[in-house]
Write a structure and sequence with these properties.
By secondary structure, the chain is mainly β. Helix content is 8%, strand content 50%. Strands 6-5-4-1-7 form a 5-stranded antiparallel β-sheet, with no helix packed on it. Strands 15-20-21-22-23 form a 5-stranded antiparallel β-sheet, with no helix packed on it.
């Protein structure tokens, strides 16, 4: 009997906490961007059947009116050809858009966070103007494209021994409250590796691909501190440098040996340093001009995956950075 009362108490407390969840929305921001690419209906009441006050365009800003929430709801989903399912789920909140008041669901909104300075800020500010790089799947970073409808969208597919570009349409899905709350989904996702947006049209055809998710790390620890070329082909060169560090232990010191790397793009007798690392996401001819293009990730916790194109190179360059996708840890 005591065990039954204890279980009943847990159920009552859980239900009370669950009910409270719908009465208060802990706002992540006072401002939100609309991420529904076709626009979002501002509703007179917190449900999808109520009257439409107005339609708000994609990427427009709305302001949170107060912290009350009016229920959590799963509103939309997509099941891809490969069987992955993405959901849109969030809280109904009261917002202001211009002079209009109404209700929106946070499943179709993304918080606008205060801007902060980052290292190499000028470098990254110059990207994502004429090209956009997106990685399909789950994530937690703001990769909302400002001018979604101003780009041609292509998926890079690798399947059945072929690499090719094909026009795609993608959607953003947000599950408010989840750690990885932001997803980029394409219905035809089998073999889809990345998405590229471009202001000029590409050809939908098979393209040349040299490397995909290639790791050039040395398998053995260095025996000395000399620099060497650990990998080389017509398009890539990886330099490895050995390091020796003395680490304190209970019994004195021990040697810790490790490598650092530099990855270079190569063309004929020219080389260009792209990243201090030994991993490359992709090497191939994306813009179909006969020269290799590169996708390389910098960092880990606050990662940035950069697209370099040969068609936009400047003097003394083999390729130039044109787009950046943000990822990294979600916690």
């Amino acid at each position: 009997m005591k065990k039954f009362k204890f279980i009943l108490l847990i159920i009552i407390v859980s239900n009370t906490l669950f009910a409270q969840e719908f009465n208060f929305y802990p706002p992540m921001s006072k401002k939100y961007k609309v991420l529904a690419v076709s626009g979002l209906n501002l509703r007179a009441k917190p449900n999808v059947k109520s009257d439409i006050v107005k339609k708000i365009a994609y990427n427009d800003i709305v302001r949170l009116e107060h912290k009350d929430a009016y229920g959590s709801e799963k509103l939309d989903s997509m099941t891809t050809i490969s069987g992955s399912t993405y959901y849109s789920q969030g809280f109904w909140i009261k917002v202001r858009h211009g002079k209009s008041l109404g209700f929106l669901n946070t499943a179709y909104l993304y918080p606008v966070y205060p801007e902060y300075r980052i290292a190499d800020e000028e470098f990254y500010d110059a990207l994502n103007k004429d090209f956009v790089l997106l990685m399909p799947g789950y994530g937690c970073r703001d990769n909302l494209v400002e001018d979604y409808h101003g780009f041609h969208w292509y998926g890079y597919y690798k399947r059945d021994g072929k690499s090719y570009l094909k026009k795609v349409a993608f959607e953003y899905f947000r599950m408010d409250g989840e750690m990885a709350d932001m997803s980029i989904a394409v219905k035809e996702d089998e073999g889809l590796k990345f998405i590229v947006g471009t202001k000029v049209e590409f050809l939908e055809q098979e393209i040349k691909s040299i490397h995909f998710n290639k790791n050039f790390h040395e398998s053995a620890a260095p025996s000395d501190t000399l620099e060497k070329i650990s990998y080389s082909d017509l398009h890539c060169e990886v330099h490895a440098k050995g390091h020796l560090r003395k680490l304190p232990t209970r019994d004195g010191e021990r040697d810790y040996r490790y490598w650092t790397y530099k990855f270079y793009a190569c063309h004929e007798n020219e080389k260009q340093l792209l990243v201090e690392g030994a991993f490359v996401n992709w090497v191939g001819d994306l813009d179909q001009d006969g020269f290799m293009d590169y996708i390389i990730t910098r960092g880990e916790k606050d990662a940035r995956t950069i697209l370099y194109l040969s068609s936009h190179r400047k003097e003394n360059q083999i390729v130039a950075p044109v787009a950046c996708f943000y990822s990294g840890y979600c916690c």
